[in-house]
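Protein record
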Amino acid sequence: MGLSYLGIFHTVIGVVAIIAAIVSLIKSAKIDLGRLSGKIYFYCTLVASLTALGLSSVKGFNPGHILALLIVVLIGVAYFLYSKKPGNIRARFFENFLLSFSFFLSWLPTVNETFTRVPVGHPLANGPGDPLIARTLLLLLVLFIAGSVLQFRKQRRLNRLS
């Protein structure tokens, strides 16, 4: 596998972020920054995205770095909306979407890196263009869209009750 210490740290923190997001989605149907699982997702995603800037299989600034910075911006704006605009208001729609979108984007390198490295010696995929990776990402996109619609509907109900 050949991971550096930074790569190992980045991977562990990233896995913790993904688990926290899944727990939050199961418990709250959203990544809830008011709950421990949402806070763990936020901080671990922030650290994982920033450490991704120090990782690269090619020299120089690349699309992976842009993706990491985009995720930092998304969770940063979501945190701002959470902390500065409390209550069940229109800002919750954006906060929920931004956190869910950051979670979806986190899966892009996760799927690619996992499928091209595991199992060691005989990876599931040959590279980013492998059909297995494409099908998996398509499935994740469909789940993201369906989840976003459900979150939107739930938030609309909450806003009407307020």
User: Anything to note?
Assistant: Residues 121 and 144 are 32 Å apart (CA to CA). The chain has one domain: 5-161. The chain has a mean pLDDT of 92.
